[in-house]
């Protein structure tokens, strides 16, 4: 309950920053919407229509109340309902994030355990070197490399990830393969290295040494005795990377022209479509905070000692 209350407070603080950030942007929003038709009379009428002539606190309370009920207002560009327009794009973003997570999490945990089991071996050295290289390369750079080599030169996958609501599951998996691969290579490195470090730290504890003295096989010691006690930091780093998958897909969606929430946010920023920017920011903040809150709760469940003060 304490963690949940803290998560709600954090989300409220994020909403304040999102609203304030969109209000202090340079220039007048009414003039930006009207552009060439920005006469003093039209600007005054537009400011009244947008509610810009009311106190900021009043506008924030109204916006937060509507957002809590799923109403993000109407777009300033096309006057369409923001929530209705963002729903399919949110689904696309969540699909890409889930696709990458289903590949990255088992792969990272398996490689991390294997690297810890063979610490100091050639496999461990190659895994560390590869993951260090993957961490050093930005995901957009990997995306452009995949487009050049795999999509253009080899022709195995399309350059653009053009998906529609009518796209079948298998077609969607095929079209999203390169964006997924770009995200996987970045987050696998973090999760694999944390898994390796956590397991190695637990393997050095006295009770593990006693298990070796008793003659238990190494794989059983790692899976049944070491891994459960190493779960807390592993869960935290997995949750952080899953949150990154949802929030950090903005760049990848731009590279592959993927119709997700991140691309909507970038387009809305360019057009100064404030309701869309606020909605995307609040959704990203809610996803990030929820995943971190879930990681905290799972860490408390996996390690009962964390529930009590030291």
Notes on the protein architecture:
- The protein has 310 residues and is an all-alpha fold.
- It has helices spanning 2-23, 29-34, 40-50, 56-68, 82-117, 122-136, 139-153, 169-175, 177-203, 206-213, 218-229, 231-247, 249-255, 261-271, 274-302.
Helix content, binned percent: over 70%
Which structural class do you get from the secondary structure elements?
mainly alpha
Integer average pLDDT: 79
Helix count equals 15
Binned strand content: under 5%
Low-confidence stretches: none
Silhouette: globular
Order of helices and strands: HHHHHHHHHHHHHHH
Q: Mind summarizing the main beta sheet?
A: none
Rg, alpha carbons: 24 Å
Number of distinct beta strands: 0
- What is the terminal separation in angstroms? 19 Å
Task: Give a brief description.
The chain is mostly helical and 310 residues long. It has 15 helices and no strands. The longest helix has 36 residues, at 82-117.
């Amino acid at each position: 309950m304490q963690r949940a209350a803290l998560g709600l407070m954090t989300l409220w603080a994020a909403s304040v920053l999102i609203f304030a950030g969109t209000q202090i942007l340079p220039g007048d929003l009414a003039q930006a919407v009207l552009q060439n038709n920005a006469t003093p009379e039209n600007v005054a009428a537009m400011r009244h229509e947008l509610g810009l002539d009311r106190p900021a606190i009043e506008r924030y309370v109204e916006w937060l109340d509507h957002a809590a009920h799923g109403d993000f207002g109407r777009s300033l560009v096309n006057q369409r309902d923001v929530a209705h327009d963002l729903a399919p794009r949110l689904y696309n973003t969540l699909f890409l994030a889930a696709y990458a997570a289903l590949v990255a999490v088992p792969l990272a945990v398996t490689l991390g355990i294997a690297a810890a089991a063979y610490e100091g071996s050639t496999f461990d050295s190659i895994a560390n070197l590869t993951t260090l290289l993957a961490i050093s390369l930005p995901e957009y750079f990997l995306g452009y490399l995949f487009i050049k080599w795999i999509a253009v030169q080899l022709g195995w996958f399309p350059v653009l990830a053009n998906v529609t609501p009518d796209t079948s599951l298998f077609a969607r998996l095929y079209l999203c393969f390169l964006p997924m691969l770009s995200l996987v290579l970045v987050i696998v490195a973090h999760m694999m290295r944390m898994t390796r470090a956590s397991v190695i730290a637990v393997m050095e504890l006295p009770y593990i040494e006693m298990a070796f003295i008793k003659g238990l096989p190494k794989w059983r010691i790692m899976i049944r005795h070491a891994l459960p006690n190493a779960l807390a930091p592993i869960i935290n780093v997995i949750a952080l990377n899953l949150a990154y998958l949802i929030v950090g897909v903005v760049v990848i969606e731009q590279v592959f022209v993927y119709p997700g929430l991140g691309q909507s946010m970038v387009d809305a920023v360019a057009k100064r479509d404030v309701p869309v920017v606020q909605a995307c920011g609040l959704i990203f903040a809610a996803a990030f905070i929820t995943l971190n809150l879930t990681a905290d709760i799972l860490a408390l469940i996996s390690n009962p000692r964390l529930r009590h003060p030291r």
